Amino acid sequence: MLRTFPSKAAGRPVVVQMRIGELSKATGVDIETIRFYEKSGLLPPPARSDNGYRDYDRPHLERLAFIRHCRALDMSLADVGLLLQSLNSHDPQQLADVDALVDAQLGRVRARLKSMQALEAQLQALKSRCDARHDHHGCGILAELVAAAHGEACACHGHAGDDVGDQTGGRT
Question: How many CA atoms lie within 13 A of 82 on its CB side?
Fold first, then answer.
C-alpha cells in the first residue's frame, strides 16, 4: 500500500514511499526489470527500511516512467542512460547530443521499416502462390517453402525466371 501524507501546497496526498511491487504496478515495469535498472545504474538505489525492504519515492517513480517511455520508443539502455544524464543539463553540446541520439534512433526505425516493407513484399509474393483451391491440388505456399528449404529458387525472394502466376512454383 502506498504511504501518503497531505500536501501543504495542493491539499492532495503525495506519495512518500512505496515498495517495489507498488512501484511495479504504478509504472507497469516488472519487479525483476526494476532490480536490473538499479543494478545497471539507470535507477538509483532506494532507501531501505529497518526491515530491509526497498522504499521508493516520487523521483524513483518519475525516473522509472521516463525509462519505460524511452524503452517504448525502442531506445537502447545505453541511450536511455545518456538521456538520463542530460535531463537537467543546460550544456548546449549535451543537448545537441540528445538531438543526435534521436536522429540516430529515427534512422534505425526507418531502416527497420524498409526491412519490414521488404518482408511484406516477400510474404505477398509467397501468398501469390496460393489460389485457395486446395481441393484440386497441393498448397503452392508449402511447395515454395519446401523448395526454398531444399535450396531451390523461391517466389518470395524474387529469383529471376520465377513465374509468379504459376501456382505450383514451376514444380509438378
Answer: 14
CB under 8 Å to 63, separation ≥6 — which residues? 42, 43, 44, 84
- Give the model confidence (pLDDT) of 29-75 as tens digits: 999 999 999 999 999 999 888 888 889 999 999 999 999 999 999 99
Cα–Cα distances in angstroms (integers) from residue 171 to residues 22, 133, 151, 160, 164, in the given order: 61, 17, 14, 15, 12
Q: Are 122 and 130 in contact (CB under 8 A)?
A: no
97 within 8 A of 84, measured Cβ to Cβ: no
pTM of the model: 0.70
As a whole number of Å, the CA-based R_g of the chain is 27
The single residue listed with the C-alpha cell 501524507 is: 5
